[in-house]
Design goal:
Keywords: Ligase. It holds the Pfam family F-box. This is Ubiquitin-protein ligase, putative. The relative contact order is 0.05. This protein has helices at residues 2-25, 29-37, 41-46, 79-96, 119-130, 193-201, 260-266, 273-278, 293-297, 325-336, 364-369, 389-400, 419-426; strands spanning 63-66, 103-109, 136-142, 147-148, 161-165, 167-168, 183-187, 208-212, 219-222, 229-234, 238-241, 251-256, 286-291, 315-320, 343-348, 379-385, 407-412, 435-438. It is built from 13 helices and 18 strands. It has a domain at 342-350 and 371-443. The chain starts with a helix and ends in a 6-residue tail after the last strand.
């Protein structure tokens, strides 16, 4: 009886197992497609052993992402074999793939998956992909050496999204543009000024643009009418926009180390960069200005208000040196010109060569008595402050001119003088509901 019982139990297990296999095999095509869509390449290939119906399913995966997960952990113990195995995997998948390819991504962030000479391999893959009408191409390859993008890429009109990292970009003279490109990201890319401007100009549908630490030129000129989102990080002498930003909904993130001294000399006695930047761009919804960009905007003669208010601006982040009179003026100009600002974040920036302002250095009493347009800001965060008088005067200005303020959070830099809390409590506020929170990071 015991032996017979074991056989019946085994048979029952086999039946259950077979039923589970049948259930997997009978899944609708759209369900299996979604399963494969969320699996890494390595795991997607393994599904071919589930059943005969799954054997060739991965051949038609629309999104192909190759990263360190494609190779086993054991491979990383043998650095000499990493590159060969990774390249074989990519070639194998492309060779057997039979469907359309919407997305192709290589993510080689310092793992040396491709090797030190990616030019030949990427050229081979790109040539294969443009024949398959690739829509999204991401080459995040960081080997420490720039490689040239092959000219064949510039004939690909099916691209909607393009992201390139650590490469040399030189479009051919016959380049007619990417007519369908909507999103472009260039990171650590080397190219000439003319090549950059020609590339941007010939992407008429471009809506999203990310530029991070570009090399080969020092001035950014952007000419594209449909841009809705912009991120710029890097060091440049100047930046200009011509017939750009038909803003509907846009977040502009500008984290630039601009050559502010050159800009100050160039605009001495002239209208400020603030006017030039916001000219014909009143529909900005969110604006993030990091590092020294406010210093750049403060060059020239700063107006009290912008001629055309930014009526759509609701979110603003500023990085400001409170000991720089021009930066304070530029910040106040922005605040006065943004009647519908709801969220404001200000981070203090300290420069060693800047002299500290004295209470008499800036006519704050004139500012307080001026009939400014009341701010509609509801949430304010001010961090990295050191407790200088100029910082406190700015906080006092915000409290007195923000009748709709609900919450203000003040975050000091390290341990500042204890009297700071007392002074903040004494400040009058135009809002009877305003809550001022003094937030100190726990260093323990």
């Amino acid at each position: 009886m015991y032996i017979k019982g074991r056989k019946r139990s085994k048979s029952t297990c086999l039946t259950i197992k077979d039923a589970e296999l049948d259930r997997i095999s009978s899944l609708p095509g759209n369900v299996t497609d979604q399963i494969l869509l969320h699996l890494p390449i390595k795991e997607a290939l393994r599904t071919s052993v589930l059943s005969s119906k799954w054997r060739n399913k991965w051949y038609t995966m629309p999104n192909l992402v190759f990263d360190k997960h494609c190779v086993s952990d054991a491979t990383f113990q043998d650095p000499s074999g990493i590159s060969n195995k990774f390249l074989r995997i990519v070639d194998h998948v492309l060779l057997l793939h039979s469907g359309s390819i919407d997305k192709f991504k290589i993510c080689d962030k310092y793992q040396n998956l491709i090797g030190m000479s990616p030019a030949t391999d990427t050229a081979r893959w790109i040539l294969h992909l443009i024949r398959r009408s690739i829509k999204e191409l991401v080459l995040d390859i960081r080997t420490g050496q720039s490689y040239k993008i092959p000219w064949c890429l510039f004939s690909c009109q099916s691209l909607h999204h393009l992201e390139l990292t650590s490469c040399w970009l030189k479009p051919p003279t016959t380049f007619e543009g990417f007519r369908n490109l909507e999103s472009l990201s260039l990171i650590e890319v080397t190219m000439t000024q003319d090549a950059f401007e020609n590339l941007i100009f010939k992407c008429p549908l471009l809506e999203t643009l990310e530029l991070v630490n570009l090399h080969g030129f020092t001035q950014i000129n952007i000419h594209t009418p449909n841009l809705k989102s912009l991120l710029i990080v890097g060091k440049f002498d100047d930046i200009s926009f011509d017939k750009t930003f038909q803003f509907v909904t846009v977040l502009v993130d500008l984290s630039l180390y601009l050559n502010s001294e050159t800009n100050q000399r160039r605009l001495h006695g002239c209208s400020s960069s603030l006017l030039n930047f916001f000219n014909h761009r009143p529909r900005i919804v969110g604006l993030v200005m990091k590092n020294y960009f406010l210093k750049y905007l403060a060059a020239g003669v700063v107006p009290v208000k912008l001629p055309t208010p930014c009526i759509h601006l609701s979110h603003l982040l500023l990085n400001i040196n409170f000991n720089d009179l021009k930066e304070i003026s530029a910040a106040l100009c922005l605040l006065r010109s943004s009647p519908n600002l709801r969220k404001l974040k200000i981070s203090a920036r300290i420069e060693e060569q800047t002299d500290l302002l004295t209470p008499a250095s800036y006519c704050w009493e004139d500012i307080f008595s001026r009939p400014d347009m009341p701010l509609k800001v509801q949430h304010v965060t001010i961090d990295i402050i050191s407790g200088f008088q100029s910082e406190l005067d700015f906080i006092r200005f915000l409290l007195l001119n923000s009748p709709m303020l609900e919450k203000m959070t003040v975050k000091p830099l390290g341990n500042v003088r204890p009297e700071l809390v007392t002074e903040l409590i004494r400040f009058k506020s135009a809002s009877g509901e305003a809550e001022v929170i003094y937030h100190v990071e726990d260093s323990s």
